[in-house]
Write a sequence for this structure.
């Protein structure tokens, strides 16, 4: 139940963010599927932004129960370049990856 509340809160924040252009962005596509053991959603807006995400419970009913989230979002930067970020969030934390993000040096 907690993950549904978190999902709805994050989804609402994503949709409530004001568009950066002077014109209001329109939602072009939005879909969601929420189940007992996971969810997925996708949204695209007219200003070039999109966000897709899926989450799934693992180790259900155990002390190590955790939500694993995988997703991707993209946006058009002020420089006109489309940036895409893929991520996973699990018991190891939030792990983004993208061509424009710095990579930690190998120890």
């Amino acid at each position: 139940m907690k993950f549904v509340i978190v999902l709805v809160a994050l989804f609402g924040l994503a949709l409530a963010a004001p568009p950066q252009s002077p014109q209001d962005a329109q939602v072009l596509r939005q879909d969601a599927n929420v189940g007992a053991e996971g969810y997925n959603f996708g949204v695209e807006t007219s200003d070039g932004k999109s966000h897709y995400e899926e989450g799934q419970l693992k180790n259900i009913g155990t002390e190590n129960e955790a939500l694993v989230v995988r997703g991707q979002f993209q946006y058009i930067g002020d420089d006109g370049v489309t940036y895409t970020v893929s991520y996973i969030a699990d018991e190891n934390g939030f792990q983004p990856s993208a061509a424009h993000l710095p990579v930690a040096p190998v120890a």
User: Anything to note?
Assistant: Residues 75 and 81 are 8 Å apart (CA to CA). The chain is about 15% helix and 45% strand. The chain has a mean pLDDT of 83.
